[in-house]
Each structure stands twice: as structure tokens, then as C-alpha cells.
Amino acid sequence: MKNDILNYNNIPFKTLFARERIEARVKEMGLQIAQDYTDKDPVVVCILRGGVYFFSDLTKEIPISLELDFIQAKSYIGTESSGTVELIKDLDSDIKDRDVLLVEDIVDTGRTLKFLISHILSKKPKSLEVASLLFKEGGDAVGYPIKYVGWNIGKEFVIGYGLDYDGKFRNLPGVFLYSE
Ligand code: IMP
To answer: pLDDT digits over 160-171, tens only?
Structure first.
């Protein structure tokens, strides 16, 4: 289908989730989150940098009072089994006894999220839930329930809507399959 392809710098990328589909799904997720957090005063945390578009769109679709914060980790992947994660930017707010919702772009192996979840839990929030736009097959290493998932996907590498390849393509308006 012609509409399935986005030409970007003359590179044809195949659409996995078009902008309109993402908008619709993000709206649904926002309403669900708003229902679950009615009468609460949550802190919503964006995992930089990949979560940036999902976080900005999602929080605008949650029509209740929210506080926003940002956290960043870096994964060093040497071999499959020796990936270590380091904290680059910590939260600015005090989340002790707060309801925290962590927003991620994609769970792949789950290592990054596992690290951030344990870091956040050490600050003793009242509750911690996770929203991820995408969940890749095999991401169970995270060992924590992901309450809000946009879509489950296969092992493919995806770009756009915050997701990068080598720092590029984050600004593509939807999620696309990356192939060299
Ligand atoms: P994990 O620690 O293996 O779960 O990897 C999580 C991080 O790796 C994500 O937050 C992304 O930044 C990046 N990542 C994993 N899979 C993809 C992908 O398909 N496209 C772009 N980035 C990805």
C-alpha cells in the first residue's frame, strides 16, 4: 500500500503505526489512566530521551491534575548478557509516598526499565506503575508488571515517535520499521 511507506531523506520506511493510530491509542490510554488515578495526585515521569513524544502526548490526554518529572538512564551493551545501565539524570521531585507513573517508549530486553524501577522504588513511592507505548517480544526480564501497554510487537527494530537509530529518526511522525 502506498500510504504504508514514508519517504524520509529518500529512504523508504515501512509504517508500523501511523500518526493517527498512535493518537487514537494514546487517547484511550490517557482516559484509562485518568480513571485509575481519579482522586490521586500522581507524578508522571518521562524516561528520556525516547519517551519524549509519547509522554507529551499522553499527559495531555490525562484530564486530571499531574506533576511531571524526567529521568534518564544509559545502557551500555557489550554483549547480550553484560549490558549495564547507568543513571544519567535523576528525578528533581521528592516522590516519597507519591503515586508515580513511569512512561517509557519501548521495552526491549527490559533491562533499562528494571534498573529504573528499582531506583525509583528505593525512594519509597506510595505506588509505581509503568506505561510503555511498545512492548517487544521477550521483554519479560523487567520482572515488573507493565500496567499500560500501547502495543505488543515482535523482535523488529523500530524508529520514530521518539525512537532512534544511532540518535536519528526520533522526529518521524509515527513508528516505522528500520531496515538497512
Ligand atoms: P531494554 O533495556 O533492552 O529494554 O532497551 C530499552 C531501550 O533501548 C529503549 O528505551 C530504547 O531507547 C532502546 N530500544 C530498544 N529497542 C529499540 C528499537 O526497536 N528502536 C529504538 N530503540 C530501541
So the answer is: 999 999 999 999
105 ligand 1 Cβ < 6 A: yes
163 CB within 6 A, ligand 1: yes
SS3 3: helix
Ligand 1 lined by 56 (C-beta under 6 Å):
no
Q: How far is the CA of 29 from the centre of ligand 1 (A)?
A: 21
pTM across the whole model: 0.93
Number of domain units in the chain = 1
DSSP type of residue 37 = T
Q: Give the model confidence (pLDDT) of 48-82 as tens digits.
A: 999 999 999 999 999 999 999 999 999 876 545 45
Can you list the pairs that 70-78 forms with residues at least 24 positions away whose Cβ atoms lie under 8 Å? 70/45, 70/46, 71/45, 71/46, 71/47, 71/102, 71/116, 71/119, 71/120, 72/47, 72/48, 73/47, 73/112, 73/115, 73/116, 75/111, 75/112
User: Which CATH number do you get for residue 70?
Assistant: 3.40.50.2020
Of all protein residues, the one whose alpha carbon is nearest to atom 16 of ligand 1 is 108
CA 169 / ligand 1 centre spacing (Å): 14
Query: What is the domain range of residue 142?
Result: 5-178
